[in-house]
C-alpha cells in the first residue's frame, strides 16, 4: 500500500505513516502524537506514551524495537517536533486517505488501520513469543 500511496496518489506522507505504523505497532492516535524525541537511537527503540503528560490507550509506556525499514522515513521527519501532525490534524483525515488507497488496492472494508497492528504482531510472533518480547 505504501507504494500505491506514492505512485498513484502522490501521498508520501501516507506511505510514511503506513511504514511507521506497520513496523512499530502504533495506533492512529499514537502515530499523530509521535515526537522526534520518542525515538531512542542508542537503544534502538521507540517509546510510546513515555513522555510526561502523554499516555497510551492502555495508560502505559511501551518500548518498541526499531526496525531498519523505518530509518529512511525517520531521517526525513526527525526535524519536526511531531512527526505527522503537519500532515493530518486528526485521525479521521488520516483514515480517509488510507481508505482511498485501500479501496484502490482492492482490499475490503474489513481491512482497517488496525490491521497494520496485526501484521506487526504476526511478524513479531514469527521471531519470538509476543508475551516475552516486551519484558
Give your account of this protein's structure:
- The chain is mostly helical.
- The model has no long low-confidence stretch (mean pLDDT 82).
- It is built from 7 helices and 3 strands; from the N terminus they run αααβββαααα.
- It is 47% helix and 7% strand.
- The protein has helices spanning 2-7, 12-24, 28-33, 71-77, 91-105, 115-127, 130-133; strands at residues 39-40, 45-48, 62-65.
Give the structure's gist in a few sentences:
The chain has 135 residues and is mostly helical. The chain is built from seven helices and three strands.
How large is the share of residues in beta strands? 5-15%
Give the distance, in angstroms, between the N- and C-terminal Cα atoms: 32 Å
**CATH C-level name:** Mainly Alpha
Strand order of the largest sheet: 1-2-3
- Helix and strand run: HHHEEEHHHH
Radius of gyration, CA atoms, in whole angstroms: 15 Å
Tell me the helix content.
40-55%
What does the oligomeric state look like here? single chain
Mean pLDDT: 82
State the CATH topology: hpI Integrase, Chain A
CATH architectural label: Orthogonal Bundle
- By CATH, the superfamily comes out as Intergrase catalytic core
| Secondary-structure content class | mainly alpha
Tally of individual domains = 1
Largest sheet: 3 strands, antiparallel
Number of helices: 7
Amino acid at each position: 500500500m505504501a507504494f500505491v500511496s506514492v505512485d498513484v496518489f502522490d501521498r508520501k506522507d501516507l506511505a510514511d505513516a503506513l511504514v511507521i505504523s506497520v513496523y512499530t505497532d502504533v495506533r492512529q492516535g499514537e502515530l499523530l502524537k509521535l515526537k522526534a524525541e520518542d525515538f531512542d537511537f542508542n537503544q534502538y527503540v521507540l517509546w510510546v506514551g513515555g513522555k510526561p503528560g502523554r499516555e497510551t490507550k492502555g495508560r502505559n509506556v511501551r518500548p518498541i524495537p526499531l526496525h531498519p525499514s523505518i530509518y529512511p522515513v525517520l531521517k526525513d521527519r526527525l526535524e519536526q517536533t511531531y512527526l505527522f501532525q503537519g500532515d493530518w490534524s486528526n485521525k479521521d483525515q488520516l483514515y480517509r486517505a488510507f481508505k482511498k488507497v485501500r479501496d484502490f488496492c482492492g482490499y475490503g472494508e474489513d481491512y482497517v488501520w488496525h490491521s497494520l497492528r496485526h501484521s506487526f504482531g504476526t511478524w513479531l510472533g514469527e521471531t519470538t513469543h509476543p508475551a516475552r518480547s516486551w519484558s
